[in-house]
Hints:
Low-confidence stretches of chain A: none
Shape of chain A: rod-shaped
Largest interface: A-B, 42 and 51 residues
Distance between the termini of chain B: 41 Å
Oligomer: heterodimer
Amino acid sequence: xxLEFIKQINEYVIEAILETDxxxxxALIDQTNWPSKIDINNAKAVISQKIAARQKQIxxxxxxxxxxxxxxxxxxxxxxxxxxxxxxxxxxIVKSMQNKDTLPEGLLMAFREQGQGGSDDDIKxxxxxxxxxxxxxxxxxxxxx
Amino acid sequence: xxxVNKSDTxxxxxxxxxxxxxxxxxxxxxxxxxxxxxxxxARTGLSNQDVLxxxxxxxxxxxxxxxxxxNAAAYLIQSGKSLISNEETxxxxxxxxxxxxxxALGEDASRAVADLSHTAPEAHIELSxxxxxxxxxxxxxxxxxxxxxxxxxxxxxxxxTQKKAKILILCVLxxxxxxNVEKRIKDKVKKRFPNGLPWWEIQS
Lengths: 145, 204
């Protein structure tokens, strides 16, 4: 019971320390029973080191996360690449142009205007556009298999 | 509580870095002195610098969410109190375990149990001495307020474990006078016992 009272007295001492203003607290440095200037400098160094270490740790963590994101993105792009040769793409395009039931109106005309004498890159672009339009099913081979 | 709500009520990691980076010499003096007053070295074996390092580390790692309405000193002291208390408990368990192991390994089982279950005669003497020390501390505190009737009554009722509401009635104090008495007690005990009173020596 009495020990609780003594603990309460210590709490009062702690509250009084915390209520001490900055000027008075600084005046107590190096006084008997109070921290020395060396103690203060050591404590500040520890705080600075811990903050710097934590910031370094965060930087390493963020870099690792970014690397992982880049790898994920690359892998995703790899999976999105068409698994077809230019010849197969050209064949897909021709087949789609012949299928008048599914070909949107005006598309054949547009193809004739833009697609004549196309390079491999042009064929790839047209194939991609027709895939995006839903005229060509890029997973046709997957379905067959 | 989701992250959005939490950022409204608690500091973010970046804000914690800023708050700790802004601690000045006066803040550090007060923190180190408080950890000393909490008996960190005697209770845990950790210096006040060690405790400060630990609580700063915990704050940076967001191990203890830091409410926005709590200032740096109050937050770090609360963390320090928990750390000291936890370390003290761990240390006590460790000491008990090693004591039991020492006894059990040294003697046969029945003797070992008997050794642990009987209080040593010295313990009674220590208990009596502890009681004397506490009474002496109380007398010293009471002496500080001789002639201050309000403070003397306040201390008497605190010793009787009365709560504030009851003390106000028994000592015939207004709320303002109660706070003034508390302030006088804080100031005087801090001046008389700048490192507090080592109650942990009595308990152990």
